[in-house]
Design brief:
5 helices, two-stranded antiparallel sheet, mainly alpha, single chain
Length: 115
């Protein structure tokens, strides 16, 4: 895993100017949990790479730099929002369109509703 990260690190030096690989490697070797997390990202067709350095905490910042989201991490699920939140907004929009953009149609509707 470290060899893969080193190769990517050296290939894309513009992502992390001023960061030395020896420091990154030393930190990763001291933290097996972080290395395992990066290995998991790599196993799902991601491309983790160092993109910066947090001066406050001294941590190296890794981001998935893949060109597009890997297939294992894509989702097509609709957001879980109840329909009753969208219904009033839709009703107001329809009502406004009918009374602002279509006055002739609304006159016909009024005649039909209030005979």
């Amino acid at each position: 895993m470290l060899d893969t990260l080193k190769r990517r690190f050296e290939t894309h030096m513009k992502r992390h100017e001023g960061v030395a690989w020896s420091l990154v490697r030393a930190r990763l070797e001291r933290s097996p949990a972080r290395l395992a997390s990066l290995a998991e990202m790599e196993s799902t067709s991601g491309e983790p790479d160092v993109v910066g350095f947090d001066r406050r905490t001294g941590e190296r910042l890794f981001v998935d730099c893949a060109a597009e989201s890997p297939p294992g991490r894509r989702t097509c699920a609709k957001p879980a929002r109840p329909w009753n939140r969208e219904l009033p907004v839709t009703a107001i929009a329809v009502f406004t369109l009918l009374y602002v953009l279509m006055p002739r149609y609304t006159r016909l509707v009024r005649r039909w509703l209030f005979r």
